[in-house]
Amino acid sequence: MRPTLTAEDKAGQQQDDRRTSRRRSGDEAENQALLYLQKAGLKLVMQNFSCKGGEIDLIMQDGPTLVFVEVRKRSSMQFGGAVASVTPAKQRRMVHAAQVYLLSKKSQAACRFDLIAIDGDSINWLKNIIVA
């Protein structure tokens, strides 16, 4: 016998069905990156911070340093892979979002910008990708 779904369950299921495969792949990449960074000793502060003009995939704590992490996944190295997909415009949006976050928390913590680049099955962690 199948369990009866509530209206709330049905709405959630429809929302999941409407998510694009690209967005689901992005969510999986973010979760993979989160686990990778946690195994390296970083602690999650916030996931998917967004503001007008930018967003940050993961905000992590690495000792005294606040780390703003961009997660990029590409199925292959064609066209430069995940690293090449972080354009100067994307970097500006990351810096903007980080500034909004820091102002909202009234924080003056030391911070850096990292990239988790996933190309196929390979994960590369690049630290200090933006010198702000």
Automatic annotation (TrEMBL):
InterPro entries: Restrct_endonuc-II-like, tRNA_endonuc-like_dom_sf, UPF0102_YraN-like. Pfam families: UPF0102. Residues 7-27 have a biased composition (Basic and acidic residues). Residues 1-28 are annotated as: Disordered. HAMAP family: UPF0102 (MF_00048). Belongs to the UPF0102 family. This is UPF0102 protein H8L32_14330. It comes from Undibacterium hunanense.
